[in-house]
């Protein structure tokens, strides 16, 4: 079924009615383990999930592929896309632009797969204003100290970008405690336990997709 997007008078992105599995929003501080968990989920459930490939103006990390991990772009091109109404949401994070295009979500939903979106807390707020109606999951680290260690060990950040990410993490950790923001908050201390918890929450949607095959 075709998705029909429109922007209402208040600028809110609305979509036409369609059937299919509910999308999943994974959010939480940078370094909490979202990518680790979602990559495993997709590998273990082939043909069930599809990743909503975001746009970003940050540079690719070693091993990241354009069109698979992100659509790597420039500020000018991304701003033009935003001005043309091509994005569901966009945000500035740690000195770069990030955003979910309508096409990214549509591509996954056209295949009747569970669409997974990995977005920051600003993205969560914008998606809540849309009609996407996803399951909202926050992945949180056990502590700021452990988060900092994970980010340092990952070796992807400069000291400046690391500090920006830690600052954003403090805000994210506070907001995730607010009732009603997330359907569930998973503390990713032990990876196996966090993964089991994630699978349990998504079990109903996973079964729906598997049974529809
Ligand atoms: N439970 C865990 N225990 C120890 N290390 C972990 C755990 N979960 C993830 N990690 C490691 O922490 C680092 C950050 O994880 P990951 O890149 O998945 O985070 P992220 O939330 O996707 O970050 P970003 O938002 O910046 O993309 C990675 O090196 C990953 O291997
Ligand atoms: N609002 C959005 N946030 C996004 C999107 N894609 C990723 N992100 C978030 O950005 C940070 C940093 O990601 P990184 O890959 O540079 O480490 C992280 O919190 C992601 O969740 C998006 O489309 N919109």
Notes on the protein architecture:
The structure is a single chain. The protein has 213 residues and is of the alpha/beta class. It has one domain: P-loop containing nucleotide triphosphate hydrolases (Rossmann fold). It is 40% helix and 21% strand. The protein has seven helices and eleven strands. The protein has a five-stranded parallel beta sheet with strand order 4-9-3-10-11. Strands 6-5-8-7 form a four-stranded mixed beta sheet. A hairpin with a 2-residue loop joins strand 7 and strand 8. Helix 5 packs antiparallel against helix 6. The chain is globular and about 45 Å long. The protein binds adenosine-5'-triphosphate and the ligand Nc1nc2c(ncn2[C@@H]2O[C@H](COP(=O)(O)O)[C@@H](O)[C@H]2O)c(=O)[nH]1. The site of ligand LQESDW3C has 14 residues, from strand 7, strand 8 and helix 4. InterPro entries: GK/Ca_channel_bsu, Guanylate_kin-like_dom, Guanylate_kinase, Guanylate_kinase_CS, P-loop_NTPase. This is guanylate kinase. Keywords: ATP-binding, Coiled coil, Kinase, Nucleotide-binding, Transferase.
Shape: globular
SSE order in H/E notation? EEEHEEEHEEHEHEHHEH
Number of strands: 11
The appropriate CATH architecture is 3-Layer(aba) Sandwich
Mean pLDDT: 93
> How many whole angstroms does the radius of gyration measure?
17 Å
Mind summarizing the main beta sheet?
5 strands, parallel
CA(first)-CA(last) distance: 16 Å
Fraction in beta strands: 15-25%
Strand order of the largest sheet: 4-9-3-10-11
């Amino acid at each position: 079924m075709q998705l029909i997007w429109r922007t209402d008078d208040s600028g809110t992105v609305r979509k036409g009615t369609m059937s299919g599995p509910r999308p999943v929003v994974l959010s939480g501080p940078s370094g909490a383990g979202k990518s680790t968990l979602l990559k495993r989920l997709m590998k273990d459930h082939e043909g069930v999930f599809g990743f909503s490939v975001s746009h970003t103006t940050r540079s690719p990390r070693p091993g990241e592929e354009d069109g698979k991990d992100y659509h790597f772009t420039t500020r000018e091109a991304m701003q033009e896309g935003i001005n043309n109404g091509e994005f569901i949401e966009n945000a500035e994070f740690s000195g770069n632009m990030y955003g979910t295009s309508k096409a990214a979500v549509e591509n996954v939903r056209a295949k009747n797969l569970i669409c997974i979106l990995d977005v920051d807390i600003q993205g969560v707020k914008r998606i809540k204003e849309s009609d996407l109606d996803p399951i909202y999951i926050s992945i949180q680290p056990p502590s700021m100290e452990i988060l900092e260690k994970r980010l340092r060990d990952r070796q992807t950040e400069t000291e400046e970008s690391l500090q920006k990410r830690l600052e954003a993490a403090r805000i994210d950790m506070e907001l995730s405690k607010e009732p009603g923001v997330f359907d569930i908050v998973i503390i990713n201390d032990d990876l196996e336990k966090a993964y089991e918890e994630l699978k349990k929450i998504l079990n109903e949607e996973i079964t729906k997709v598997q049974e529809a095959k």
